[in-house]
Specification:
The protein is α/β, with parallel strands linked by helices and 207 residues long. The chain is 27% helix and 25% strand. It has five helices and seven strands; from the N terminus they run E-H-E-H-E-H-E-E-E-E-H-H.
Length: 207
Amino acid sequence: MALHLYAATTSQGKLRDFRTAAEAHSVAIDPLPGLAAIQAPEEDGATFAANTTLKAIYYSRFAPGNLVMADDSGLEVDALGGAPGVRSARFAADTGLVDSPDANDNTDVWNNMILLQKLAAVAPALRTARYRCVLVVACDGAVLHSAEGSVEGLILDAPRGTGGFGYDPLFYVPALERSMAEIDLETKLSISHRGRAIAALLKMLEF
């Protein structure tokens, strides 16, 4: 019988990445039941580890006896002092740029636009950055495992590629000479921050 994990996320992109990586480890990953109806905790941690630990402990209490996985991940840009960091998903919103209630969700578009604006005067060689991901598994309010993954890259001056999500069209991987949005899912999972974190975590769950 496959080990079953509940993921505390509604992001289809994250779920796809997690499920694809988990297939080789006989681990089933599904969204936490009723997640949409659960009031989200305030993510006030200063680090990815703090936020994901908080979320894993919190959400695990809504699925007694089950393993619940939470993640926190984002982009760290050296020229911006590590920003957006834990504010990656809310980078544009922090500037007041949000969609109207009747609009489609353009969060990724706005976040990428703000990033390009802030780096407009930064030379290409100085646009170094990394994606970082921290995963934590908890059960009944207790942390069981944690893992981390990261990947180094550069921020492009214009989007490239149509795959991926978030900052992927702007995140260039020099070793592959492509952006994260230009590579196939299998390759992405082998080198990405999320792929490396989930691979490390799944090894801990093999028993």
